[in-house]
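Checked the freezer inventory, then went back to the computational side. Two predictions to log before the end of the day. The first one is the construct we discussed on Monday; recording sequence and tokens without edits.
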Amino acid sequence: MLKVSGQDQVGLTASLSQILADANVTVLDIGQSVIHDQVSLGMLVQLPETADHATMLKELLFQAHEQDIQVRFTPVSDEAYEHWVQQQGKDRFVLTILARRVTAEHLAHISRAVSDQGLNIQDISRLTGRVSQNAVSANDKACIELTLQGKPKSLEQLRKQFLQISAELNVDVAFQVDSVYRRNRRLVCFDMDSTLIEAEVIDELAKAAGVGEQVAAITESAMQGKIDFQESFRQRMALLKGLDVSVLDSIAEALPITEGAERLMTTLRAYGYKTAILSGGFNYFGHYLQKKLGIDFVFANHLDIKDGKLTGEVCGDIVDGAMKARLLKQLAEQEGIRIEQTIAVGDGANDLPMLSEAGLGIAFRAKPIVKESARHSISTLGLDAVLYFLGFRDQEIHS
């Protein structure tokens, strides 16, 4: 094992590998990382029996002196090497840490939870860009990705630990199997209200109708799962009867787009992902967002209008949680992809069916009951944090 550390510089790997090449060395494994211009390079190499080992090592040490770096050599036995080879094929996982600023306390608690489960950290990398200390912002984002290997003692217990850490330290932790599907998602489906937009449209309509407090109370109960969605929806719609349609345009134009939504959609579109709104809200506003954000599909409730006023009802079936899950599967079949290649993002109890159906279900700034039930969640950052779950780095993301 050859370990190199010191100031990073152009041509470092080339100069060292040339010395190894002259000795006909075989490279069995190699890894390198650079942090703050300090390089750490490791090479597991096999030395031919005919090689002049002493001369090769002397030349490596001389080159290290010339380039002001440190080189260490560690012999590896055949037994140790074979044990290392046998580790191939073991379960691999990807753990994503999200926060405005990742702290040592975050890493300490998360890495302890991982090690307690018998998992070994194989690799650590930063997905977010470098941040100047002279331009600190409330909207800063930090993401670190860990590759893990092993078999967890209890996935349920590990998930509980991550939920506890997340709640106590204001950090998001996503734990995924490192499969081919993680790197090959193709369809992303979003709830609309309180996910793509920072508002509940039906509450905005209610304010315009003068029944804001009544509708908001019903909405909150529905999102927390205390009232059946369809029943709560009918109750709220009935209170909107007689509202003039002229208010729809002004409400649509004032809808606050969620932090990171535009960056997320621009990137997904650039890389060929299909996107959809699956909403228990209204398609009038869904189509407005479709044009604004470049979304491919919209499925939502159709407001019934007569004589320029809302009737207090919708046309057709109500889009509830069960229908969202069916639409997700329908779109996957339509696009010719596996359900494992789908992503669903939502915040309410009526989103849980599609979150559990999708290959990757993400509760976004969700109610407690939803966050506890979903496999993954984002609470600390904007909607573009979804991209880090897919392994995107900042330099690959379109602004």
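The second is the one RB wanted added to the comparison set:
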Amino acid sequence: MPLDRAGPGGERDEPADRCALAASVRPGDSGPSPRISIVIPAYNEASNLPDVLAELHGVLQEWGESFEIIVVNDGSTDDTRAVLARLHRAFPACRPVHLRPNSGKAAALSTGFRLSRGGVVVMMDADGQDDPAEIPRMVALLGEQCQFVSGRRVNRQDRFIKRRTSQLYNAATAWATSVQGSDMNSGLKAMSAEFTQSVDLYGELHRYLPVLATWAGFAVEELDVNHCARLHGSSKYGIARFWRGLFDLVTVKFLTSYNRRPFHLFGGAGVIVALIGSGLLMWMLAVHLSGTPIGDRPALLTGVLFEVVAVQLLCLGLLAELLVHLRGPHEVHWEEDEAATEQPPSS
């Protein structure tokens, strides 16, 4: 049954620090594994959760697939814990998980991913902006050719400034990572359990799930989905999320491009700095040979400084390579074609 959705659009905020977690899982997580696991991080969304879970539960029951709903209470200070207790009694498939400190959306999602039992995991927000009716279409795309589906919000019910900054964020992410996507930070995503059990989320890395999935070798697709206005309350996001997202973009770029070859980054930077320093010092040498004093020339000190920094960068790159080597062989996920392993029929 569709909800009467009204109010300004928005998404919830969360601190970037990864705190020590303490989760308590309510009964109801036993029995056969469901096919679909829905993971919902919630921070002070007590007013939205009853409507969101009622609509979601109705859609999933009509769909006919076995499912579980994991709601991760991310240290809420409102009545979220009590509301989830009532919802668990009303909807036994709902599994509340409580994090004692507010640990951030990435930590909440990581907890939900670890506790999920389904072969397909769907993440969505608790503010009512993600339409549960889109979940069957997204899951239908998953298969051999696609293991990660990101919802692309059409007709976004958000403020103008939020839509524009999101466009800039998506463009910067695509440029830095070479992973094309027009709505990286959509709250509605469907993915294989193989990916969720292997990804390590912290900080603001939940914004870059499509990038992490692509880097891990999973095929990623985008699908146009309906976007609704926030049901109740206001957005929890503040201006600090843009700075945190920028720093984590640098982290993602480093992890995806130089995880196994850090010397290419530090060594390359060291060579560039060394060339600049060498150019300055050669210039100073030419000036000195012409008979002009250079002892008080800033270019001399700058050239020496650049050479020292270059040596430090090269040494840092070599130390990073040593750490990668000591970490052991890189884990490679592989599978063999079953047809190729079948024994030929005996003649």
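For RB: Strands lie at 23-25, 36-42, 67-74, 94-99, 120-123, 148-154, 189-192, 220-226. Residues 262-327 form one domain. Let me know if you want it refolded.
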